[in-house]
UniProtKB/TrEMBL annotation:
GO molecular function: ATP binding; dephospho-CoA kinase activity
Gene Ontology CC: one annotated term: cytoplasm
Cross-referenced InterPro entries: Depp_CoAkinase (IPR001977), P-loop_NTPase (IPR027417)
One GO term (biological process): coenzyme A biosynthetic process
PANTHER family: BIFUNCTIONAL COENZYME A SYNTHASE-RELATED, DEPHOSPHO-COA KINASE-RELATED
Any one Pfam family match given in the protein's UniProt record, by short name: CoaE
The protein's name: Dephospho-CoA kinase domain-containing protein
Organism: Eublepharis macularius
Length: 229
């Protein structure tokens, strides 16, 4: 099994691509979903966030107000870094658990949906392939304004907070151009899925895993024999 990092930009249409991949039965780990799970009340990340940002970022039911917290960190990079330092270790731990589960189930590859894959630049070294969902700048701006009900200035500010898609293109191994209609996007996703399924990269990972397990088992057996004798 190997890892495929999927990323995009705000309103580039990554969710459309994910829907196609999930319909194909691909194993998908969504970093955003995990990010919401690890900050549920009572968990370690939740307690650390409330301690760092105060109870004013909580809803009446005790859950974290994601909009309030998002507004707080949007214009303050130091607070964004603080939040990331709290949540990222917990997110990565949960992602690792899910990766191991899919490995045991025999999947050839696992897709990690990571919105800020290239911005953080910490997980790219673990990816055998990286995939960028791209759309042209004007389409991105129009979609974001329509989807979120933003003014042009507000939408441009949100887009500017991320690494431009044109720069991400240079970093990605595969590009899904989502500037057109859904059928055109689907054809590109099907082609990508076919090439990943046909890849033999997963054999190397399984070989290394089996070799490691065999080595540990052999060492354990040797030590037990020494203790018994």
């Amino acid at each position: 099994m190997f890892l495929v990092g999927l990323t995009g930009g705000i309103a580039s249409g990554k969710s459309t691509v994910l829907t196609v991949l999930q319909d194909l039965g691909c194993a998908v780990i969504d970093a955003d979903i995990i990010a919401r799970q690890v900050v549920q009340p009572g968990l370690l990340a939740y307690q650390s966030i409330v301690h760092a940002f105060g109870p004013e970022i909580l809803l009446e039911n005790g859950e974290i107000n994601r909009e309030a917290l998002g507004s707080l960190i949007f214009s303050q990079p130091e607070k964004r870094q603080l939040l990331n330092s709290i949540t990222h270790p917990q997110i990565q731990k949960e992602m690792l658990k899910q990766i191991l589960k899919h490995f045991v189930l025999g999947y050839r590859y696992v897709i990690l949906d990571i919105p800020l894959l290239f911005e953080s630049n910490k997980l790219t070294r673990f990816m055998k392939h990286t995939v960028l969902v791209y759309c042209d700048p004007q389409t991105q701006l129009t979609r974001l304004m329509r989807r979120n009900g933003l003014t042009q200035a507000e939408a441009e500010a949100r887009i500017a907070a991320q690494l431009p898609l044109d720069q991400k293109v240079k970093l990605a191994d595969h590009i899904i151009d989502n500037s057109g209609n859904k059928e055109a996007t689907k054809r590109q996703v099907l082609k990508l899925h076919s090439s990943l399924e046909d890849s033999l990269d997963f054999l190397w990972v399984r070989f290394l895993a089996i070799t490691a397990v065999a080595g540990i088992s052999g060492l354990t057996y040797f030590l037990l024999r020494q203790l018994v004798s």
